[in-house]
Write a structure and sequence with these properties.
single chain; mainly beta; seven-stranded mixed β-sheet; 1 helix
């Protein structure tokens, strides 16, 4: 789905992984990509290119554990990521960079929306 398509009234709202509590340590990796829906699980993910050279590699969907209080809501008929203050963080199709780092779900005690055992624990988001 891209930002110009409207969410069907009958389509289920996509899920997302949310941290149970704020991290005590801020990881400093950056995850660049596009906010998308992983269609087989109906979960919000960051789609990023994994590879070693320019123009090489493949796209991979990364499940992100968003900070406590973040959610999904319809904005102008399209699912959007909403921050803990209720403000729009980004929309589907937005190019973003997520600050944080990869961790095992068991370490931070979250259930991955996509079923991945390693997720990207977010502490900030920047729209590109």
């Amino acid at each position: 789905m891209n930002r110009d398509e409207k969410q069907s009234q009958d389509a289920p709202m996509p899920g997302l992984t949310v941290q149970r509590e704020a991290p005590t340590v801020a990881l400093h990796a950056g995850l660049p990509g596009t906010l998308e829906i992983e269609t087989s699980t109906n979960c919000l993910v960051v789609r990023t290119r994994m590879g070693t050279g320019a123009g090489t590699g493949r796209f991979v969907d990364i499940d992100v554990a968003w900070p406590p209080g973040w959610s999904v809501a319809l904005r102008d008929g399209t699912p959007a990521l909403i921050d803990a203050t209720g403000q729009l963080a980004c929309r589907l199709g937005d190019e973003i960079t997520v600050g944080g780092g990869f961790v095992d779900t068991a370490v931070i005690d979250v259930v991955s929306c996509t079923g991945q055992e390693r997720i990207f624990e977010a502490y900030r988001l920047t729209r590109v």
